[in-house]
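Recall that a protein's primary structure is simply its ordered list of amino acids. Everything else, from secondary elements to tertiary packing, is in principle encoded there. The following example makes that idea concrete.
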Amino acid sequence: MAVKIFGIVTLLLFAVNCSTTEPPPPPDGDNPQITIELDDATCTEAWIKLTTTNLQVPTAITLQQNDITQDTINLSSADTLLYTDFLLPNTNYQYQASSIQYQATSNKLGITTMDTTSHERTWQLFKFGEHSHSVLYDVAIIDENNIWAVGEVYLLDSLGNHDHNVYNAVHWDGNSWQVMKIAVGYKGNPTIVPLRGIDVLSNDETILSSGLPYLPNGNGGWKLYHLWDLGVLTEEDGSVYYIWGTIINNLFFAGKKGTIVRYHNDHWQRLESGTEVDLLDIFGSEDGTLWTCGYRSTDGISTLLRNNGAGWQTIYEGPGSVQSNGYYIGPLSGVWGTDDKRIYLMNWNGIYIQPNSSELFYEKELARFSSSGYGIDGTDDNNIFVCGVGFVGHWNGATYIEYSELYQQNRRLLSVDVKGNTVCAVGRDYNGFIYSEAVIALSK
């Protein structure tokens, strides 16, 4: 077991040296007290809240696991969040903290770690496209019988000729996929263009993007917001493809050249990101903190930004070829999480734990990919799916695998979505220099 102390700004490693200074006596009637309670637990980790009363800090606190002393912590504040890892999945542990100096012992805290999820999956593979370069860029699951994927699909017309009018969406009704054209009005004309992004809100409203946002119009369709025509963006800004939101009145879009816009209470606003690097994903954690990341292929610069309510802060911007905690930062391609403690940060190489802090720190590598990784999503800390060049992978809380039955050298899976027991990854299969098929891998 390894224990760390989470401070307000920095992460302090535990110290094993104990002070021998006699503690000052507490005021009459005020006995020293130590209390511990569970904050959170995954399959292999736990966070424990430790609170002290009438103990003068700094002081040494001993932590026992299953009645065996594991660590002595040099406590520097009265309220502390302890982090312990190298635990076993679905296992009961008992913790107790004590101070020899103050002759104080905490309550006994029982913790049961999460169980792992099964790697077992049955996959269905679907392909679309009869000429040109068909591809699906993004996917969103409403439920197992209602799935949308967006991109560009090219079919033959009724005479067998190339139809160059794009189909920009496919829909799963529980039995089959329907290839569709989603049109929106622009300057009085219906417009059908490739779609790049899709997100489903908490009330199942669907948001789209072609590089420009499409919001529901209340009549079963969508309204296009041309951000340049509206004066929200200038010619120096880029298209916004990636969407994050839970309600219609608070949406965020990120994309090219570091461009970020917000839709809030019927008002559009360009947000200053502080970067010109292309952003490839955006995610919001339960405490309201937003994360976005990306990289620029021309010079290998990666960026990670965080917004905890005070504007966008650059956590890292620099070469992907340098290391953090012994791991290469790499081209940052995805971000996802479950709580306000940390996020799962993805680059082309694998999945890494990044604390919710103002500094980049690859705390741990969870998975190493067989090839470049592009998309990440999950339902909990023990059920994370990723996709990339030729693969779909699964982290079950303790181990990582890739599904060999989906591997194809010329396959590029660009996005994955998970809801309940349903997993769907989308992308393209290259079948030659001038032809590719859109591909969907579905598991329920």
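Residues 7-21 have pLDDT under 50 and may be disordered. Residues 124-443 form a domain with the Methylamine Dehydrogenase; Chain H fold (CATH 2.130.10.10).
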